[in-house]
């Protein structure tokens, strides 16, 4: 019986994000690990591997494919109420003990995941998106940076069909992969998990490459939203939340920041679930640090107006939400407040900016 790794190796082809080194070694450029991969070996992610001195990467399958509200990604400043065809592959460059998608992300590290794959072509995926009425195609569930070449192939077809494209990522990227993605990508959600280097090392990464990526994503003109899962005892101190919010506000006060509730999952079963009061506190810190759009998530209908988009000019309710449902959308077609005319940053149409 073929192992999962062997099955995935059969669904691969030579990648583009790598550089040759001496002998048959190579450097992978898809994420912040910048793995040196010897012939016959795999990178940290376990899905990018060296075959005869050439890097092979995942191709031609999905492990998850669903039509979701775009608010679930979450993108709150992108076509409110629209659907996103969400697809994922397998593998991750981190190993977070609180991962809520561990069946996909940790499939090659944890036999308990029991994951399977389904072969598919980009055109099939885009056809499903169009038939379902989706406005966007989004790479999510596992870490999309490590499957960037396949995502680009899908996104080319999606753009030809007039759809937006997006990444839901941990942001542990490189300048090379972000520049590679830029012509084919519209939306980028980053999970900024902490502002502490030691915390990131416990998750298998480093903080600075994530911060560099957030700066670069914004500078490249991609629509950026940032999420921090507020985990009691891990990253929920006032000081750490203020450092996260201050960093984002220093790039742009218009970056939406989502502070979301933790619940016990995978290998982190001890901390209690994040209470509404902790999210309200985090949101207040975000506003105090200068962010204009701070949202509280994972506790639908329990956070008052912290799920809603309010006009920073006059305070009017613009988009009223209950979880992933849009109750009211008063934005004009151009993304402005109908009362005072303030422009709300975001992507309010499928037309790509030039």
Give the strand content: 15-25%
User: Judging from the principal axes of the Cα atoms, what is the shape?
Assistant: globular
> What's the CATH topology label of the largest domain?
TIM Barrel
How many separate domains make up the residues? 2
Instruction: Name the quaternary structure.
Output: single chain
The number of distinct helices, counting runs of at least 4 residues, comes to: 9
Set down the secondary structure blueprint.
Layout: H1 4-10, E1 12-14, E2 18-20, E3 26-28, E4 36-37, E5 49-51, E6 54-58, E7 61-62, E8 64-69, E9 83-88, H2 102-105, E10 118-119, H3 122-131, E11 136-139, H4 148-160, E12 164-169, H5 175-181, E13 187-191, H6 197-203, H7 207-219, E14 223-230, H8 238-251, E15 257-261, H9 276-288, E16 294-297, E17 309-310, E18 317-322, E19 325-329
Parallel strand pairs: 9-11, 11-12, 12-13, 13-14, 14-15, 15-16
Antiparallel strand pairs: 1-6, 2-3, 3-4, 5-6, 7-10, 8-9, 17-18, 18-19
Helix pairs in contact: 3-4, 8-9
């Amino acid at each position: 019986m073929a192992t999962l790794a062997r099955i995935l190796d059969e669904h691969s082809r030579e990648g583009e994000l790598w550089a040759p080194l001496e002998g048959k070694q190579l450097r992978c450029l898809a994420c912040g690990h910048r793995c040196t991969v010897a012939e016959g070996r795999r990178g940290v992610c376990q899905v990018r591997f060296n075959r005869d001195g050439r890097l092979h990467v995942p191709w031609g399958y999905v492990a998850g494919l669903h039509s979701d509200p775009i608010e679930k990604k979450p993108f709150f400043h992108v076509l409110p109420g629209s659907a996103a065809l969400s697809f994922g592959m397998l593998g991750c460059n981190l190993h977070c003990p609180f991962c809520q998608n561990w069946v996909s992300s940790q499939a090659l590290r944890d036999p308990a995941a029991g994951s399977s794959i389904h072969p598919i072509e980009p055109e099939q995926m885009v056809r499903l998106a169009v038939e379902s009425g989706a406005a966007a195609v989004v790479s999510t569930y596992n870490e999309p940076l490590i499957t960037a070449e396949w995502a680009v192939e899908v996104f080319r077809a999606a753009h030809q069909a007039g759809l937006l494209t997006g990444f839901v990522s941990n942001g542990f990227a490189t300048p090379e992969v972000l520049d590679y993605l830029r012509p084919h990508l519209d939306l980028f959600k980053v999970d900024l998990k902490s502002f502490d280097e030691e915390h990131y090392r416990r998750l298998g990464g480093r903080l600075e490459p994530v911060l560099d990526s957030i700066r670069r994503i914004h500078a490249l003109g991609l629509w950026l939203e940032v999420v921090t899962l507020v985990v009691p005892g891990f990253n929920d101190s006032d000081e750490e939340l203020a450092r996260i919010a201050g960093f984002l506000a220093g790039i742009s006060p218009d970056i939406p920041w989502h502070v979301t509730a933790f619940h016990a999952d995978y290998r982190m079963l001890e901390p209690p679930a994040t209470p509404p009061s902790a999210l309200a506190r985090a949101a207040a810190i975000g506003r105090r640090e200068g962010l204009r759009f701070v949202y509280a998530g994972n506790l639908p209908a329990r956070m008052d107006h912290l799920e809603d988009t309010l006009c920073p000019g006059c305070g009017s309710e613009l988009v009223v939400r209950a979880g992933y449902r849009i109750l009211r959308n008063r934005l004009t077609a151009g993304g402005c407040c109908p009362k005072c005319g303030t422009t709300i940053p975001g992507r309010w149409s499928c037309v790509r900016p030039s």
